[in-house]
Amino acid sequence: MPALRAEKICKSFRGLFTKKEVLHEVSLSIEEGEVFGILGPNGAGKTTLMSIFSTLIRPDCGHLEVLGLDALQKTHAVRERINISSGNPNFPWSLTVRENLNHSAMLYGLYGRNLARSVDEAVAAFELEPHVSSKFETLSTGLKQRVSLAKSILNRPKILFLDEPTSGLDPDMAMKTRALIQKIYEEQDITVVLTTHYMPEAEELCDRIAFLREGSLIALGTPGELKRALKIGHRIFVEYEGDLDPVKLRIIPGVMDVRQSPGRVEMVFDHSERAVSRIIKAFAEADILDIGIDQPDLEDVFLELAR
Amino acid sequence: MSWQGELNKFLSATYKNWIISKRNVFTVFELVFWPFIGLLSIGLLTRFLQVTDDMVAFVLVGAIALSILQISQIDVAYILLFDLWSKSIKQTFVAPIRGYHLVLGAMLFGVIRGSAVFLILALASSRFFGFDFLAGGLVTVIVFLAGTFITAASIGMAVCISILLFGQRADVAAWSLSGIMMLVSGVYYPVEILPGPLQLLSKSIPLTYFLEYYRSAYGYGSHQVLLGMGLALLYFAASLLILNLAIERARTTGMMLRLSE
Questions:
Q1: Of all helices (H) and strands (E), which one includes residue B77?
Q2: ipTM higher than threshold 0.85
Q3: What is the pTM of this model?
Q4: For residue A239, how many C-alpha atoms fall within 13 Å in the half-sphere facing its CB?
Q5: How far is it, in rounded angstroms, from Cα A54 to Cα A39?
Q6: Is-contact A193 A38, C-beta < 8 A?
Q7: Predicted pLDDT at B261
Q8: Closest partner CB to A92 (pick from B1, B86, B93)
Q9: Contacts of residue A102 in chain B, CB cutoff 8 Å?
């Protein structure tokens, strides 16, 4: 049984005289225990899709099944089994970290020792002990994000939705947050669905990725499958003098594409670190003048998907 | 879900309102300063106009009722207003919580604060203007307060419904609706002096009946408190139903997301 199954989900937002289609017949299935990424540029519909998956808003059409339950009918039962954490989160400003977590736990019907234990565990999991008495409004962006993540595990959800969990964080804090997400995933045996702008984050965390653009699902697969299908990997260029047999490059394991021009060759590999020494050997009869590696990013993927 | 879990869902709104209120210096103004200033101003006006003791009682009952109504309705409205101001509405509505959990929990806090306001104003009016707030007996006070609290909860829900339907700017309703009540339910004057159409409107507002009920203890005619209580309960049930529909509508229109941005 998939953890989540969406069929032809569509959503439009209406103004007084306008109607904007945000999602167009999005269908996908997420397996139990999977970390599933939803990627896309601003306005792609990621947050709307996450909001529909987490039952915060209703789709205009389509069918949604979460943990075997009809999520459009059994919304209450679904909400008890899931949770969500969003980027740039907000909670009542004047409540402290612990008070906000207590309040959230009460919303999920926790009580007594169970409530206290859940809050303590969430505080410990996201290393919030020094900040439990701080008001939410005084916290840094990174700490606010950790409070939101702590809140999202209070009810021990079967599916955790993370909407741009590292949005607005500096690289160090983003890395730490990713490590905490990974830790929670491993310890709590849950399904994680996350949205992100950041390709390395998706690669690091996700088993499979769906790409959304202008409300439509345009690609779905493992990071490797997508990059192979789109021939997007680490781009290595070499500038050289002398003779080069391009066949020697094409047979290097992991090579996805080779483009040659006079004195310059560009190659795409799925793992550049394994390829460099073999590339250098292929240039035995030439002099290497310059060599460089470009990491693929979300923009590369989307440039390819847009073709 | 166990009954303790259900109880905690109710109490979540009470807990949040309590924490926010105790940290907010404005609470003192809400609870003591403004009601006291209002009561004192009205009381001194009666002195200036040299009205009879019965008329003083008439006006002070109105002033006390208005303060209770305002404080209790805002506590129910706070279930959305606090979240609206801190842009955290989706944190509440992504949880397995229903409208009645939030309303009844907030109403409990409103009853506590409203009772405190009543006590403060009743004692102050007794001390400064010789108003005997127990002239009709304890039961009269309890029925009057109960009716006012139920009416206030409906007004608070109307504020929440307005926000869910029309967005953030509708929070102005939180302060406007009790003003309309003041005008048409005879807070400071008998509804008989209102123009015909407004008199009809006043008969549809439960507060009118609870004011008449309390004032009847001071010799001001008859009352139809049962009709008032029936109306108050009807409006309460209808408001709860409409609130749930408004929540679902906000999920459909996307207002739930917009209110969190």
A1: helix B53-85
A2: yes
A3: 0.86
A4: 3
A5: 17
A6: yes
A7: 79
A8: B86
A9: 15
